[in-house]
From TrEMBL:
Species: Pseudoscardovia suis
UniProt cross-references to SUPFAM superfamilies, sorted A to Z: Cyclophilin-like
Protein name per the record: Rhodanese domain-containing protein
Tree of life domain: Bacteria
Residue intervals of the Cyclophilin-like domain: 5-89
Recorded coiled-coil stretches: none
Amino acid sequence: MRLLIGETEVPVTWENNASVEALKELSPVTIQMSMYGGFEQVGPIGQSIVRNDVQTETSYGDIVLYSGNQIVIFYGSNSWAYTRLGHVDLSQQE
C-alpha cells in the first residue's frame, strides 16, 4: 500500500493488523484531508472499517484510524483512543 500526498509518494511503515488489511481492500482510495486542532490532518474514508481502538499517545508521523471511518496523520501529538495504521518514515522537519 502506498501513501501519496499530491503526486509525491511518502514512505510509510504500515502496521500488521485487520484495519490496514481492510484499508488495502478499499484501495485505491482518495482521502481529502484538512487540518484539525493544530496538530493533525484528518479525512473521511467514506465508510467504516474494522477497528481496535486503544488509548494511545501519538506523535508526528503517526497514522491512525479514528472512529472507524477517518484517517488521521499527526504532525504534533495527542492522546486518544485510536487504531494504529502506520508511521510516516520522515523526520519532523521533512
